[in-house]
Design brief:
single chain; 366 residues; alpha+beta; Jelly Rolls; Arc Repressor Mutant, subunit A; 2 domains; seven-stranded antiparallel sheet; five-stranded antiparallel sheet; globular; disordered N terminus; disordered C terminus
């Protein structure tokens, strides 16, 4: 039988935008201080709940738990990088519908969460609001606490990564940016959704596929966590710095723009021209170019280059292909031009990058 009790810890100091907190509550499970309690309301001895509680209760840098056999497949991983900087990676599939409730007892914080596969629905009990994060979406939240309820539907793959940050880290970054709109979004909204950009996907891939060990891995992940935060906030500044009056997009326009991105993703090596893409999506060229940049944060041409270089990086690290062969496979007939673009993006020549990689280092988990 689990022994739960509330623990009142010393008050936290206030920080800009989040108010003053007099105390924080935690719970103890079998003598271990917990910040989250996971349980199945329909089955108190649920092995999945126990698995997640073991993760939240661990105090080592790295901990991992596997989904129990017969219930589903997958894993959960947690990395503690320092005081209020944590990474949680989960890739799970359950054989039957499963409802999980969570009691969250965390002092003031900011978090980022990224959905990489099937969408996830959950509800906050206090506000009775329901939330949805879809595939290729992310959200930023602050001060998350209380009780949540989430249903995992059978045979769906729930794959995602979330990060917790000390509020002072984000507060300092926002202050340096001097962008009032972004500060307002981060400080007043618990839930702000945005689409994943190629740059964000790349950083997430590097974090998930990290092959380092021990202290080196901790340093690497901490650097990536800060890089992810910086890029995310920079994208918020970019999005909110644009004037929405310059271009109005209807729901049909938005659907056509996402269709355009799918066409590019499926034909990235032999990508269509702007004119061809315009005809395929029934958008005029101006709206296609301006709308693509507005929605996805970069011009069509830059998006194609970015995706080709991501593919090249994967082919050299995972498939161990040579530079010339890789360049041809991703659509570059001029190796020198390919080298120039690759170095511009990654800061290293492709030949040097290839020598540094181990097989499996850059595998694509998506």
């Amino acid at each position: 039988m689990l022994n739960w009790q509330a623990v009142i810890l010393p008050g936290e100091k206030s920080f800009q935008g989040m108010g003053t907190y007099e105390r924080k509550e935690m719970v103890i499970m079998d003598g271990v201080v917990m910040r989250n309690r996971i349980y199945n309301p329909n089955k108190m001895d649920c092995p999945v709940s126990s698995m997640f509680n073991n993760l939240y209760g661990a105090d080592s840098f790295q901990s991992e738990q596997q989904i129990p056999e017969g219930i589903g497949k997958g894993y959960g991983k947690r990395y503690i990088l320092g005081p209020f900087m944590e990474i949680f990676i989960s890739d799970t599939t359950f054989y039957e519908n499963l409802t999980i409730r969570e009691e969250i007892h965390v002092s003031p914080h900011y978090g980022l969460a990224f959905c990489l596969k099937d969408p996830l629905h959950w509800r906050m009990d206090d506000s009775r609001k329901e939330y949805l994060i879809g595939c290729e979406e992310s959200y930023i939240f602050n001060g998350l606490s209380g009780n949540t309820s989430c249903t995992y539907y059978a045979d769906k793959r729930f794959f995602g990564i979330s990060l917790l940050y000390n509020p002072e880290v984000i507060g300092d970054l926002i202050a340096c940016m001097g962008n009032k709109t972004v500060a307002q979004k981060c400080n007043e909204n618990m839930f702000y959704v945005k689409k994943l950009s190629p740059n964000i996907r790349l950083i997430l891939n590097e974090m998930i596929c990290c092959q380092y060990c021990g202290d080196v891995k901790k340093i690497y992940l901490e650097g990536k966590a800060l890089e992810l935060l910086a890029v995310y906030l920079d994208e918020l500044v970019f999005e909110n710095g644009r004037s929405d009056t310059l271009l109005k997009l209807s729901p049909a326009d938005m659907e056509a723009l996402y269709h355009a991105r799918r066409i590019l993703d499926e034909n990235i090596v032999l990508a269509p021209t702007i004119g061809q893409l315009s005809r395929l999506t029934c958008l005029n060229e101006y709206k296609l170019k301006a709308g693509f940049r507005k929605v996805f944060g970069m011009p069509v041409h830059s998006y194609i280059i970015d995706k080709r270089l991501e593919l090249a990086r994967f082919l050299m690290a995972e498939q161990r292909l040579g530079v010339t062969e890789t360049a041809l496979l991703v659509g570059y007939s001029n190796t020198n031009y390919f080298t120039e673009k690759f170095k511009s993006k990654y800061g290293i020549k492709p030949s040097e990058y290839r020598k540094l990689q181990k097989p499996g280092f850059a595998r694509n988990p998506f």
